[in-house]
Amino acid sequence: METAWLDFEKPIVELERKIEDLRTFADKEQLEFGDELKKLEAKAEKLRVEIYSSLTSWQRVQLARHPRRPYTLDYIGMLFTEFQELHGDRRFAEDRALVCGLARFEGRPVAVIGHQKGRNTKENLSRNFGMPHPEGYRKALRIMHLAEKFGAPIITFVDTPGAFPGVGAEERGQAEAIARNLYDMSRLRVPIITVIAGEGGSGGALAVAVGDRILMLENAIYSVISPEGCAAILWKDRAKAPEAAEALKVTAPELLPLNVIDRVVPEPQGGAHRDPATMGETLRVELRESLDVLVRYSIEALLEARLAKYLRMGVFAENA
């Protein structure tokens, strides 16, 4: 998949392929290229550090959308056991843009909910590019209330450009479905952990992201609007998306001081897509630590802390 690598990644990928080709040739011909390989590997490591230590906001947007990035079902496979997917909102239809079900996390019963994109055109059409309809959010809320009934913590994964804006979705109450989720999630009597794993787009993300702990992967993004949408409104030119990304403050390091998120989860060098297994194990530790803290709260203390968390978000000033 040549097109699966971003432009700024290509120099690294090309050098890594040269190293692999040289290693394969040396093994096949039983030749010794140890010194040459060490020099090339050192050069590749230096290049990786130079590129990935100075990413712009727009480059992080590109990484958040990377087609090789792990999605919700990938994390479910890595982190959970006994996952049982549940379908339908019991009102209209099944929405495959949101995956919902019950599982165990290290033996502990939990509910798992997350946006799901596709890896190819066929899958993306089936998953609606990770953009849920109102029935998707109603399905998610149904599973959340089921988790509440049985006292199971809820873990959500956010990775969506936003809620689907089609006419049918609006006719079936897209805005009401999102608003209802916000209202009910603020009052659910179980711990909620949200992982911003890729794109966190507008209300489509927030509808499953009202949590007690918001973990955000290092190269994920979270914003009220996409950089392209912002650029189209402000400058009438979507090509100015990189400038919009800088202005919007969409990255994890920028959102942490504003209390929008609680923790930045480090990714493997180069992003989650370059080492999904390591990313999964890092996230496992973060989820374990967060759950261990949250389950110690009484229900009333949990709800009070959740309310206080959202009241202190952001930075503002009052004029006299």
Description:
The protein is an alpha/beta fold and about 325 residues long. It folds into 2 domains: about 55 residues; about 250 residues, 2-enoyl-CoA Hydratase, Chain A, domain 1 (Alpha-Beta Complex). It is built from 14 helices and 8 strands. Strands 1, 2, 3, 4, 5, 6, 7 and 8 form an 8-stranded mixed sheet that branches. Helix 9 links the parallel strand 5 and strand 6. Helix 10 packs across helix 11. The longest helix is centred in the first third of the chain and has 20 residues. The radius of gyration is 21 Å and the shape is globular. The model has no long low-confidence stretch (mean pLDDT about 90).
What structural category arises from helix and sheet content?
alpha/beta
Give me the strand/helix succession. Answer: HHHHEEEHHEHHEHEEHHHEHH
Provide the domain count: 2
Radius of gyration from the alpha-carbon trace, in angstroms: 21 Å
Question: And the CATH topology of the largest domain?
Answer: 2-enoyl-CoA Hydratase, Chain A, domain 1
> In percent, how much strand structure appears in the residues?
15-25%
Give me the oligomer status. single chain
* Helix coverage percent: 40-55%
Q: Detail the poorly predicted runs.
A: none
Number of helices: 14
- The CATH class of the largest domain, by name, is Alpha Beta
CATH architecture of the largest domain: Alpha-Beta Complex
